[in-house]
Specification:
338 residues
Length: 338
């Protein structure tokens, strides 16, 4: 596995935070860029860093580095790329600007061009990474052939916005944002119920292992999430939450601070140029299949495949059963081969 590298951009304009004197985009590459090898962009999601592995990447998997040149990128606010936790004053901590998916996608394209990627075959992502895929296809539709959106949506629902207010409120009420402090730990405890489904809890699936490790009791499951999210900087969690809550391809901008490219979500979906594979999970509490069905009904060339899992949201990103993970890998591989 390659090492994390950093691409630097000066005077980076954002949709909501003015101009940052400098930003860095953290990335890793798998495979080799060549004329006979297609390039795939994969973004991290909420709570994920580039230090971990991606379940779709590997020899014999959907994203085989012997077949594709794969560029993994870290979201702004995700602690690898520019974030509240690693940016110098006066843009550090609570002063770090709000970052949109469009901001991320513009930076990612600059990175790709610096690597010599003339055209992109696919953008693939889970959860917030899928939001990147949807947005990249919206603002750079002439640069990418297809998008794969796993357990995500083209526009964050009002229910999803409301869910995120709970963890954010716990973080704010604590008044503590440093890694290991009460704030990020409270954020994790409030968050943990939403990641899985009702049936997952009733069947005590935490005993088999969850996204944050196995547990012998429900209280230990809570602790696992507290410990995992507690390691984050609270201001980074706040940045990512804002990006997620305010996501909509209807508001996507090609130029920072410019006018939205579309007047409505439906118009944005109808105008989507790349082929799209949309894969919600049946029991996701954030991104429900009904929203995905609506989205695909308006896409020019969209395919809907629902992952039948009781693992809720995490079942769409490698956190489900082996059968879930194998199914997703096979469907993505099939779509990329069309």
């Amino acid at each position: 596995m390659s090492e994390v590298q950093h691409f630097h951009v000066t005077d980076f304009a954002t949709d909501h935070g003015g101009i940052l004197p400098a930003v860095q985009v953290a990335y890793k590459v798998d495979g080799t860029l060549s004329a006979d090898r297609k390039t795939v962009l994969v973004s991290t999601c909420f709570g994920e860093t580039l230090s971990g592995s991606n379940p779709l990447i590997g020899v014999g998997k959907a994203l085989d580095p012997e077949k594709y040149f794969i560029v993994r990128v870290g979201l702004f606010g995700g602690s690898d790329s520019s974030s509240a936790s690693n940016t110098a004053a006066p843009h550090d901590g609570e002063r770090f600007p709000r970052m949109s998916y469009s901001d991320n996608c513009r930076a990612f394209r600059l990175l790709l061009e610096s690597l010599g990627v003339v055209h992109l075959y696919a953008v693939i992502g889970f959860s917030m990474g899928g939001g990147v895929a949807y947005t990249f296809g919206t603002i750079h539709g002439d640069y990418v052939d297809r998008i794969v959106c796993l357990a995500t949506s083209a526009q964050t629902s009002l229910h999803n916005v409301a869910f995120l207010e709970g963890p954010k409120a716990a973080l704010k009420a604590s008044g503590e944002y440093a890694p290991g402090s009460k704030g990020p730990r409270a954020f994790g405890r409030c968050y943990c119920a939403w990641a899985y489904s009702h049936d997952w809890f009733e069947q005590k699936k935490w005993e088999e292992g969850g996204k944050k490790g196995s547990a012998t009791s429900l209280s230990e499951h809570f602790k696992n999430w507290e410990n995992s999210m507690g390691g984050w900087n609270g201001y980074d969690l706040r940045t990512l939450s804002w990006t997620w809550q305010n996501a909509s391809i209807a508001r996507a901008t090609r130029v920072a601070g410019g006018a939205a490219l579309h007047t409505s979500l439906i118009d944005a979906l109808k105008a989507m140029q790349p082929k799209a594979l949309i894969m919600p999970t049946r029991t996701d509490q954030y991104f429900v299949p009904a929203d995905s069905e609506m989205e695909v009904s308006h896409l020019r060339d969209g395919k809907l495949v629902v992952v039948e899992t009781i693992y809720g949201h995490v079942g769409g990103g490698g956190g489900g059963s082996k059968e879930d993970n194998d199914f997703i890998d096979a469907e993505v591989a099939k779509f990329l081969a069309i």
